[in-house]
Fold:
Amino acid sequence: MINRTFLLLSSLLIIHSQSIFSNQSDLKYNIILIMADDSAADNYGCYGSTFFKTPILDRLANTGAKFNHCYSEPVCTPSRVKIMTGRSGVRNYVQFGTLDKDEITFGNIMKKAGYATAIAGKWQLHNGDRGTLAPASGFDTYCLWNYPGTGSSRYWNPSIMQDGQLLETTSKDYGPDIFSDFIVEFIKKNKEKPFFAYYPMALVHSPFPKTPDTLSPGEKTAKAKGMDLSNFKDMTLYADKIVGKIVSCLERNGLREKTVLIYTTDNGTHRNLTYPYKSESRKGEKAYATDGGTHVPLILNCPGTIPRGIKCNDLVDFSDFVPTISEIGKANPPDIQLDGKSFWPQCLGKKGNPRKWIFQYYYPKFRPAAKLHGQGRNKMEIIWAHNQFFKLYRNGKLYSTKDRHEKMHIKLGESKLADKTRDLLQKAINSMPKTSAKLQIKK
Structure:
């Protein structure tokens, strides 16, 4: 009798275990990608800052995966186009403010895979005759600033288009609250099915007004002279608070362990800002092809799936997000030339297939950025490749990545390691197109 009972219990346990395994393998994770605006990696506590306060993101980094070598483009449009398409700007950059209408985005991919899709925040990708809009990019619903029909205000009394309707707002309304409320409602509405939410924040881009947490009753909301850094610091904390708001929504709806939360930023900090970092005083380098213009945070968190405390030194390029998100969502990437590779295995504590180099193509709107290394059309095309240790421009100048402002280039023969890396990076440059296939230059 005892043996028969034991066998019965064992059988039930095996069936239960197989059921759990099957459910896990069939699970489609929800995915939320948050991308803040104009905020380098050194603006975050988990990346060494003691000046900026980011307690929510620090906790997500410590209980999830933090990548130490994630790189964007130097400004918003090329970063946004690359992260959405998985393709280098040398293949798809048209002009500032344009996402080419023929490109396939992660919104298209996830929608085709059966996900509910939403976007909220900053758009700015519809300019010119090649631009596109949110529905064509695969988003079922949207709540966006810098969209056709909107005005210039993104913070107080914001101008926001939501699913074809211009919202009525007042001086008491704060744009980031509206965007994050939209994401929260989307989560609640779709909690019974897989969803993909892309939240390209309006924060923490200039101008730098006070936030709802620092604005006194009756105080004007326009930025105060001399308070840019103070307000920027408060805006960074408010962006962190909004991340916490989204995490809390997931927890209340029982979705925390079913949702992969991803946080990054689109480029470096605004050039007008100078801020302390450890023993240094650093100036924002947005728009420059330097470490300060392109080194951004990358944090992923999903309790029960992503192990706690992963600190990864592998390279991550913005083209890697499309294959990563596709793998997380069990979606099929498009049958076109992609430049990215998934970093999802590293998030799970596995070795994965880390890239050996990152290739960058950049046609700056900010002309001084091309002064040293611009070539090609209008002597404005900047092309380089780098790894964690060295960076090679197409003009042959090689720098150590420790040389933050690229003051001293390394000549042939000075270092065996540098020479070996130069060969690797030169092969990377040679493997890619020499100029943009779609670049439109305004006369």
